[in-house]
Design goal:
- With 94 residues, the chain is an all-beta fold.
- The protein has one domain: Immunoglobulin-like (Sandwich), CATH 2.60.40.10.
- It is 0% helix and 47% strand.
- It contains no helices and eight strands.
- Strands 3, 4, 6, 7 and 8 form a five-stranded antiparallel sheet that branches. It has a three-stranded antiparallel sheet with strand order 1-2-5, with no helix packed on it.
């Protein structure tokens, strides 16, 4: 049985260059893998960066460049394996 993709919302954080990741909590998820990429690097050769791996369905990422467009995605890990990453979500970082 194939796992469903995670769902993701990304909003600007409390500080410049900060974002908050919010995923729908998945039953049996032991971890969430949060990734990001600068929009200008989103090509076939672009490399997604791991922002964090957490046990909860939310995370915060600091140190991004304010005024830049980024894409974000998440996958979750269960005893059955790792889900596919969700569709990328874009955000202009404040």
């Amino acid at each position: 049985m194939q796992q469903q993709k995670a769902t993701l919302e990304v909003v600007n954080g409390e500080h410049p260059g900060s974002v908050k990741f919010i995923a729908k909590a998945e039953d049996k998820a032991a971890a969430y893998i949060w990734q990001y990429i600068l929009a200008s690097a989103l090509t076939a050769d672009g490399v997604w960066q791991v922002a964090s791996v957490t046990s909860g369905a939310n995370a915060t990422l600091d140190g991004l460049t304010s005024g830049s467009l980024y894409y974000f995605r998440v996958a979750y890990v269960t005893p059955a394996g790792t889900s596919e990453f969700c569709q990328p979500v874009s955000l202009m970082v404040a």
